[in-house]
Target: DNA-binding protein
Amino acid sequence: MARTGINKQLVQQAKTALLAQGKRPTIDALRIALGNTGSKSTISHYLKELDEPPKATLERLTEPLAQLVQSLGEQLQAEANEQLSKTQAQFLLETTQLNAQLQRAQQHLEDQQHSIDKLTERRLTEQQQWQEATRRMEQQAQELSLAQQNNHELTRMLQEQHTKIALLENEQQHANLAFEQFRQARQELHDAIIQQHAKQITLLMEERRQQADLLLSSQKELVNLNRENARLLQQLQKIL
Model:
């Protein structure tokens, strides 16, 4: 007995569809085409009825009518086969076109996937570049912050140096002024010493001249005394 939902017409449709696909209408293929429903014995029973002409019916007819029915059956079978061939050819053409479209779609899909892969790889590369650029920017920001701190420190030290230089320049000015005063005082003292020394030399020369004159006078006096002594000695000798 046939299961619910399985009948001869459904088996005929499944068989026609398999033949149109160029497949053999086996029991297993028919059962798959029927959605895995129906028992194999039921499908086999309907398949046999479809493959064999209804001989018992023809036997009940008169010979001329049976021949007519058989002729019509053969004609219908031929037309069905012709229609089946056309259907198969159309199906094969459509299948070929669909396969070509499928191949084009698959190729397009592969191209799209290749483009997606490239875009993904590019996005990953750009992301890595962006991360690297962000890291460099953060590092440069840290270096800039450190440089700004160093700049502030150097500016402070430079201001301190300017202040020290100004103080040193002020001290230098005072030192130069004091040195100039010291040089003038030293020059004045030197001039005074030279003048005093010159006066002392002049006095010494005058004193030396006077002593020379005195010495000359003393020498003359001594000569005179020597002469006088000699004369007195001569007189004394004469007396003795």
Q: What stands out?
A: The chain is about 90% helix and 0% strand. The longest helix spans residues 63-239. Residues 32 and 70 are 33 Å apart (CA to CA). The chain has a mean pLDDT of 82.
